Amino acid sequence: MDHRADLLIAIPRLNPVFARLWSARAEDLAARCGFRLAFIDQAPADAAAWRTALLGCDAVITSWGAPPFTGEMVAGNHRLRVLAHAAGSVADLVTPALFAQGVQVISANAVMAAGVAEWCLAMSLIGHSRLTTVAGLGGAMPMRWPAREGFRSLRSASVGVWGYGAVARRFIELLRPLAPRAIAVAADYPCGEELAAVGVQELALEELFATCDVVVLAAGLTAATVGRIDAGLLARLRDGATLVNCGRARLVDEAALVAAAQQGRFTICLDVFHQEPPPADHPLASCANVHMTPHVAGIGTTADYIPALLDQLDGFFAGRPLTGAISAERARAMTSHALAKA
User: Fold this and answer.
1) Bridge partner residues of 186 (DSSP)
2) Whose CA is closest to 155, among 123, 132, 129, 174?
3) What CATH number labels 6-110+300-332?
4) Distance between alpha carbon 127 and the CA centroid of its chain, in Å?
5) Are 57 and 6 in contact (CB under 8 A)?
6) Model confidence over 179-209: pLDDT tens digits?
7) Whole-angstrom Cα distance, residue 223 to residue 293?
8) Cα–Cα dist 309/312, whole Å
């Protein structure tokens, strides 16, 4: 259906990110939806240039590296209706002025979350099962038959998640068919009724660490959560437990994590690091109980970001409500990339 809506693809074509996100599939879908597209080769130099670029569009698609959409950028713009972010968090992108202008905000967070949740499930299975203590892995280590009696199933485990955003919700969906003994969540906002409705126990973070066999860190990185996982919480983890961090490295105090890893009491699975890539001689790299991947959890879904946003925009300009619109309150609880780089 031809909605005759004008979309600005505000991802500079000279930026390598553009080639990762824009594809023939996205172009075909945009054509089928009847969108008229405008592109930029380089990011506008200042707020005034952004305001000029935005004046002629009904929706704008952004991604990593986009600036905050300030009042100066949207002042007097009564045409812009949707900001669609081809990435996850919009915490550093939106401003009160944007919402005051009546612009709705969506992102590819749910798409990204699906890939991250798959990684979390894989690491939970690897860590809790003690797979690496028995498996022969590509010739790097031999299979250890005598250790097979220590292999475990998630059916015997209690699994806890810190945070209850898109990643946590999808992870719990994937986890349910495996029938773990219990699933619990420590949320940073009141959601007890929602958790009870889906059969998930709500616990304080301290209790989550003390009672769960697998603990997944999926909270957003905000000023309130930086360094929240400290030596005291790590000491609460059971011997033989598994700690999985798919969120941001700065959720965890790094010195405390290194000290805990060197004790060898529990397994640690990491996809994020305080310095990326971490140095080859990082102390975590020499710990046999630490499994690390190079920040890959969401990479497999990147090609789906823009098509998913175009699908939503197609429905919106056909007169249907946006699904998954992000409120100002929800945006404040999402990860701040500025904090991640601090």
Assistant:
1) 162
2) 129
3) 3.40.50.720
4) 21
5) yes
6) 999 999 999 878 888 899 989 999 999 999 9
7) 26
8) 5
How many other CB atoms are there within 10 angstroms of residue 278's CB atom?
A: 18
Q: What angle do helix axes 109-129 and 305-317 make, rounded to 10 degrees?
A: 140
Find where tokens 């700065």 sit: 250
| CB-count burial class (<10 Å; 0-12, 13-18, 19+) for 112 | buried
Cβ distance 164 to 185 under 8 Å?
Answer: yes
Q: CB under 8 Å to 132, separation ≥6 — which residues?
A: 126, 141, 291
In angstroms, the CA 280 to CA 155 distance is 36
Instruction: Identify which of 73, 48, 72, 76 has the alpha carbon closest to the alpha carbon of residue 62.
Output: 73
pLDDT digits (tens, 9 = 90+) for 215-230: 999 999 999 999 999 9
Beta bridge partners of 6: 36
Query: In this structure, which long-range contacts are made by residues 40-44, counting pairs with CB atoms below 8 Å and at least 24 apart in sequence?
Result: 40/8, 40/9, 40/10, 40/11, 40/12, 40/13, 41/12, 41/13, 41/14, 42/12, 42/14, 43/10, 43/12, 43/15, 43/67
pTM here?
Answer: 0.91
Indicate which residues carry an active-site annotation. 248, 295
Domain 112-299 has CATH 3.40.50.720: yes
In terms of C-beta density within 10 A (0-12 exposed, 13-18 middle, 19 or more buried), how is residue 82 classed?
Answer: buried
- CA 169 – CA 63 distance, rounded (Å): 23
Q: Where are the domains of the chain?
A: 6-110+300-332, 112-299
User: What gap in Å lies between CA 40 and CA 44, rounded to an integer?
Assistant: 8
The per-residue pLDDT of the chain, averaged, comes to 94
